[in-house]
Amino acid sequence: MSEIPRLLITLGVVLVVIGLAWPWISKLGLGRLPGDIVIEREGFRFYFPITTMLLVSGVLTLILWILRK
User: Fold this and answer.
1) Tens of pLDDT along 26-50?
2) Which of 5, 18, 40, 43 is the most exposed place for a label (fewest CB within 10 A)?
3) Residues 16, 18, 19, 25: what is their CA dihedral angle, to the nearest 10 degrees?
4) Can you tell me the distance from the alpha carbon of 49 to that of 39, in angstroms, rounded to the nearest whole number?
5) pTM assigned to the model
6) Tally of domains within the chain
């Protein structure tokens, strides 16, 4: 049971750090990669960042895999 609060606190800290670093992260071009779906119509915008999600997932998986070793 003691691992869940630690995990939640760690996740919260990571989200705060990402939020504070967002101006610099947005300059990397994430969210505007080829393969990200954007549908814009009058009064409506649908955005689904498929490629960005795959890239972020792959990088996080690699980092966590390295940290476990």
Assistant:
1) 787 777 889 899 999 999 999 999 9
2) 43
3) 170
4) 11
5) 0.61
6) 1
The residue range of the domain holding 21 is 3-68
Q: pLDDT grade, residue 23 (50/70/90)? A: confident
pLDDT score for 21:
87
Residue 1: pLDDT band with limits 50, 70, 90? low
- Three-class SS string for the chain? CCHHHHHHHHHHHHHHHHHHCHHHHHCCCCCCCCCCEEEEECCEEEEECHHHHHHHHHHHHHHHHHHHC
Residue 9 corresponds to which tokens in the numbers above?
A: 């606190």
How many Å apart are CA 39 and CA 61, to the nearest integer?
A: 29
Residue 6 in tokens = 């630690």
